[in-house]
Write a structure and sequence with these properties.
This protein is of the alpha/beta class. The protein has one domain: Rossmann fold (3-Layer(aba) Sandwich), CATH 3.40.50.300. 38% of the residues lie in helices and 29% in strands. It has nine helices and twelve strands. Helix 3 runs parallel beside helix 5 and helix 5 packs parallel to helix 6. The longest helix has 15 residues. The chain is globular. The N and C termini lie far apart (42 Å). The protein binds adenosine-5'-diphosphate and magnesium ion. Adenosine-5'-diphosphate binds next to helix 1.
Length: 253
């Protein structure tokens, strides 16, 4: 059982404040969805938590099981259990998925420790079976010429192999077609369980038809301005975001 605490987090890009005091706690076993209009800081939030160097945390804290991760580099945060699924995954021609995942596993091990190849492949294939991924898939170069759906499959397989404590999944604006959407949803639903917490960032309610969240938060202008259960996502789908802005304006007046 793990806990991710985001406490009054402020993030700037250059001099510009983007995330302006965001607080959220995620326990393992829970799926939280963050929705919100474009430009509101959703991607900035996930990159800052993962440790992207361009996203400066100016105040607040991020804790895993009570310990701050802010002094850690991105790779240390990954080892501490954070996984960031990319909105636009990079292509790595010439590096097979099998070798890429193997290197990722090796990188997480202590110095001098060697990954056992046969144990690695056994684990890889069991994860692929679990996710119903064809064995041939892993001999292809990472994301090289992949369709949107194949990129998502590659990403989900990485997540399954790395077994993060917390997965941050930024699917905003990625124009997922229905095939890719199902791959993400099936993958997350397969891995969903007491050892994984998920922060699902999505612009569209549609994804939440397949991955039913425990909690839904609306992010606006760098903060969470409303939280609720899955019905909040349906309300947003029906009414858009304007009513939230009006509510905020009314409460500020
Ligand atoms: P969202 O994911 O909610 O659409 P983002 O976090 O991508 O929002 O962006 C929030 C704000 O930060 C926007 O105004 C955007 O223009 C700005 N921004 C995002 N990334 C960068 C960057 N790398 N450099 C400068 N500004 C950025
Ligand atoms: Mg975004």
């Amino acid at each position: 059982m793990s806990q991710l605490d985001i406490i009054d987090l402020h993030v700037s890009i250059g001099e510009k404040p983007i995330v302006k005091g965001l607080t959220l706690t995620i326990h393992s076993g829970e799926v939280h969805a963050i929705m919100g209009p474009n430009g509101t800081g959703k991607s900035t939030l996930s990159k800052a938590i993962a440790g992207h160097p361009d996203y400066g945390i100016t105040s607040g804290d991020v804790l895993i099981n009570g310990a701050s991760i802010l002094s850690q580099e991105a790779d240390e945060r990954a080892r501490a259990g954070i996984f960031l699924a990319f909105q636009y995954p990079s292509e790595i021609p010439g590096v097979s998925i099998a070798n890429f995942l193997r290197a990722a596993q090796q990188a997480r091990m202590a110095e001098g420790e060697e990954l056992d190849a046969s144990a690695y492949y056994k684990r890889l294939y069991s994860k692929m079976d679990l996710l119903k991924i064809d064995r041939k898939f892993t001999s292809r170069s990472v994301n090289d010429g992949f369709s949107g759906g194949e990129k998502k499959r590659c990403e989900i397989l990485q997540m399954a192999m790395l077994e993060p404590k917390f997965a941050l999944m930024d699917e905003t604006d990625s124009g997922l077609d229905i095939d890719a959407l199902r791959i993400v949803a099936d993958g997350v639903n397969t891995m969903r369980g007491p050892n994984l917490g998920v922060l699902l960032i999505t612009h569209y309610q549609r994804l939440l038809d397949y991955i039913v969240p425990d909690h839904v938060h609306v992010m606006y202008d760098g903060r969470i301005v409303k939280s609720g259960d899955k019905s909040l996502a349906l309300e947003l789908e029906a009414k858009g975001y304007d009513w939230i802005k009006k509510e905020l304006a009314a409460s500020a007046a």
